[in-house]
TrEMBL record:
CDD domains for this protein: HATPase_UhpB-NarQ-NarX-like (cd16917)
TM annotation in the entry: 41-59, 65-85, 97-119, 125-151, 163-185
Domain Histidine kinase residue range list: 343-436
InterPro entries: HATPase_C_sf (IPR036890), HATPase_dom (IPR003594), His_kinase_dom (IPR005467), Sensor_HK_TwoCompSys (IPR050482), Sig_transdc_His_kin_sub3_dim/P (IPR011712), Sig_transdc_His_kinase_ChrS (IPR017205)
One GO MF term: kinase activity
Record lineage: Bacteria, Bacillati, Actinomycetota, Actinomycetes, Micromonosporales
Pfam families: HATPase_c, HisKA_3
Species the sequence originates in: Micromonospora andamanensis
Protein name in UniProt: Histidine kinase
Coiled-coil annotated spans: 187-221
Keyword terms, alphabetized: Coiled coil, Kinase, Membrane, Transferase, Transmembrane, Transmembrane helix, Two-component regulatory system
Region (Disordered): 1-24
Presence of keyword Phosphoprotein: no
Length: 440
C-alpha cells in the first residue's frame, strides 16, 4: 500500500512539474518566434521609412536621391543575403562580424546622405546584441550610437555648439541602448539559468521516478522474503514445539506402556503405569494445542520459573523413579517470557535425554540468577558419552536433542555447554541473558 501510494504521489507530482515548465517554455518560444520575425522585418521598415522621408522631405546638404536609393537597395540586399536568407549563418561569429561591419558602413553612408536614415541605423543596436559576442557587442553599440546621434543631430557637427549637441545625443543613445542591452543580457542569463534548473529538475524527477520503481521492486521482494521467512520461522517453531511437547510426551507414554506391559501380572504397578501414560497423553495434548496458538507453556502460566522447574522435577521423578533435586540460587525475578520458555524447554529436553539414554540414579537441576545472566545446570550420574565423538551424539533418530536445545538457547542470545565422559555422567549448562520481564 505504501509503495503504491508513494508511486501515485510521485507520478502526480512529476507531470505537474513537467506541465508547468512546458507551458512556460511554449509561451516563451512563441514570444521568441514573434520577436525573431519582428527583427527580420525591422531593417527593411527602417530603410523604407528613411527612403520615403528622403524622397518627400529631403534634408538640405544631402546626397542626390538616386545614389541614395541605390545604396539603400544595396543595404537591403546585404541584409537579405547574410541575415534573412541564411539564418544558419548567425552561429558563425566571424562571418557575422564581417556582416555587421558592412551593415555599419551602409548605415554610415545613408546617414551622411540623409539624416532620415537614422531609423535604419538604429537596427545596429539589435544586431550588435544578437550577432556579436563578448565585448564586441558594446563596440558595435557605441558605433551605432554615433550614427544614430549623427542622424538625430541633422548630420555631422559643423560648429562647437552643434558638436556639443551631437555629443549629448550620442551619449544619450549610448546610455539608453547600453541599459536596454544590459537588461536584455541579464534576462538571457536568467533564462538560461532557468532552463538549466528546469532540465536538472526534470532529470531529478526522472531519477526519482526510477528510484520509486526500484523501491517498488525492492518492497515486493522484501514482502516475499518476509513472508517466506515468516513461514520458515513458524515451521521451525512448530517443529521445535512438537519436539519439546509431542515427541517427549509420546516417548514418556511409550516408556510407561512398556513398563505396564512388563508389570501386567502386578495390577497395582500396571495401573500406575497406565495412569501415568494417560496423564502424559492429556498433558501432551494440552501443550500441543497451546503450541498451535503460540501460547506459553502451561506451567509458566500458573507459576514462576523456579516453581515450574520444581514441579517439572517432581513429575519427572515420579514417572521415571529417578531422584531429581531442583535448587535455585540468587534472587528470583521475572524474566522475559521467551527467556523463561527457553530455560523450561531446555530443562525438559535435558531430563528427557536422561530418561532415554543416561540410566542415571540421580539428577540435579540448578537455576542460578546473576546480575546479567541466568544459568540452568542439569547434571546426572548416568552413563555419559564422548562429546568429541559425533557418532555418539546423533541428532536425527531418537537423538539427544542437543542441536534443537542449542538452537533455542542461541536464538535468545545465550550459550549451551555440554560436558560428559563415558561412565562419569553428563552436565548440561544453558546461559541466557537476564532480560527483565513484567512483574508478576
Amino acid at each position: 500500500m505504501s509503495g503504491d501510494g508513494m508511486t501515485s504521489c510521485e507520478r502526480a507530482r512529476g507531470p505537474s512539474l513537467a506541465g508547468d515548465g512546458t507551458g512556460d517554455d511554449d509561451r516563451l518560444a512563441d514570444w521568441r518566434a514573434r520577436e525573431a520575425r519582428l527583427h527580420l522585418v525591422l531593417p527593411y521598415c527602417g530603410l523604407l521609412v528613411g527612403s520615403l522621408l528622403a524622397t518627400f522631405a529631403p534634408a538640405p546638404g544631402g546626397l542626390p536621391l538616386a545614389p541614395t536609393l541605390v545604396v539603400a537597395g544595396a543595404s537591403a540586399a546585404w541584409i537579405a543575403w547574410f541575415h534573412t536568407l541564411h539564418p544558419q549563418w548567425r552561429e558563425r561569429r566571424r562571418l557575422m562580424a564581417g556582416y555587421y561591419v558592412g551593415l555599419l558602413a551602409f548605415a554610415a553612408v545613408l546617414v551622411c546622405a540623409s539624416p532620415w536614415y537614422g531609423f535604419f541605423a538604429w537596427i545596429g543596436f539589435l544586431h550588435a546584441f544578437a550577432l556579436l559576442s563578448g565585448g564586441w557587442r558594446f563596440v558595435g553599440m557605441g558605433c551605432t550610437a554615433v550614427l544614430v546621434g549623427t542622424a538625430q543631430g541633422g548630420g555631422l557637427p559643423r560648429s562647437w555648439s552643434h558638436f556639443t549637441l551631437w555629443l549629448v545625443l550620442v551619449l544619450f543613445n549610448l546610455v539608453v541602448a547600453g541599459a536596454v542591452s544590459w537588461l536584455s543580457y541579464v534576462g538571457e542569463r536568467e533564462e538560461a539559468k532557468r532552463k538549466r534548473l528546469v532540465a536538472e529538475l526534470a532529470a531529478a524527477n526522472q531519477q526519482l521516478a526510477e528510484t520509486v520503481r526500484e523501491n517498488e521492486g525492492l518492497h515486493a521482494q522484501l514482502i516475499t522474503q518476509a513472508r517466506e521467512a515468516g513461514v520458515l520461522d513458524e515451521r521451525q517453531r512448530m517443529a521445535q514445539e512438537i519436539h519439546d511437547t509431542l515427541a517427549q510426551g509420546l516417548t514418556g507414554i511409550i516408556t510407561q506402556l512398556e513398563a505396564a506391559e512388563q508389570t501386567r501380572d502386578r495390577s497395582a504397578d500396571w495401573r500406575r503405569h497406565v495412569d501415568n501414560a494417560l496423564a502424559l497423553a492429556r498433558e501432551s495434548l494440552t501443550e500441543a494445542r497451546r503450541s498451535v496458538r503460540a501460547l506459553r507453556p502451561e506451567p509458566l502460566e500458573t507459576a514462576r520459573l523456579p516453581d515450574a522447574l520444581s514441579e517439572l522435577g517432581e513429575r519427572w521423578s515420579a514417572l521415571h523413579g529417578v531422584a531429581a533435586n531442583v535448587n535455585t540460587t540468587g534472587t528470583p525475578r521475572p524474566l522475559h517470557p521467551e527467556i523463561e520458555v527457553t530455560l523450561l524447554r531446555a530443562a525438559q529436553e535435558a531430563l528427557s535425554n536422561v530418561a532415554r539414554h543416561a540410566a542415571a540414579s540421580r539428577v540435579g537441576l540448578t537455576l542460578s540468577y546473576m546480575s546479567d545472566i541466568v544459568t540452568l545446570d542439569v547434571r546426572d550420574d548416568g552413563s555419559g558419552f564422548d562429546v568429541t565423538d559425533r557418532s555418539a551424539t546423533p541428532d536425527q533418530d531418537g537423538s539427544y536433542g542437543l542441536t534443537a536445545m542449542r538452537q533455542r538457547v542461541t536464538r535468545v542470545g545465550g550459550q549451551l555447554a555440554v560436558e560428559s565422559e563415558p561412565g562419569a555422567g553428563t552436565a548440561v549448562s544453558a546461559s541466557v541473558p537476564a532480560l527483565p520481564g513484567a512483574a508478576a
